[in-house]
Amino acid sequence: MKKQRMGHIWLILAILCALTMSGCGSNKTVEGSEKTYSGVVTDCAMSVVKEGDRTGRPYIIISTADGTEICFWMKKNHSSNAQIGDTVTIESAIERETNLLVATKVTVEETYFRFSKEDFIVVDEADSHGGFHGDGSYYLILDCSENKEKALENVKGWKELPLSSNLQLMMYGDESGAYGYNLAEVAKIPEITNGYYYFCDRHSQSSDANDDTNVLNRASFNFIIAIYDSDTGKMYYFEFDT
Question: What domains, with CATH codes, occur in the chain?
Fold first, then answer.
């Protein structure tokens, strides 16, 4: 009886050891597959797709400077504090067990759609965020006229002006003045005809951060917009949360 009990114990230990070894292997990556990417976060959430190792696993999607979207699955037992709209640098590799592209490290950069205060001159800046829900606005105006080559590199992948009809109405209102929003005045953004813009919808109901189709159909706003003026070399960045 004692020998039988000992046999059961050894069997359990063997199973636990095998599971432990299996778990250790699941985090290993393919040697030589390491690569670093930079871009703006367009989506990050927990996968609900019932497909093997993707089930219940966090992912992060970025848009690179050339407009390419790349999806990374977070390495097991790893997480990220990056949010939609953040500029990030991601160290990645191919996970050996699943052949997935995984993010091994996510670094959130202090930049504004790739524009950095260190590279350009800060003209104006103000932040009114506060309160329990963090409502408020933030705007930043950068003079890029002395470093236009860098600015033009940063706006690759942005859309060319004019703004879409939704964004035009939201930022500048309508000619009659009946429309209640004139957020460009809050952000100190003049009417710009020659340049580029980038829009990022951070609302919880958004299914595509770059799509402004439903931005005016909600009871609240959570978005970022940046406009680059090719004539003056100024970049206007604006966050609005209600």
Answer: 35-109 (2.40.50.140), 121-241 (no CATH)
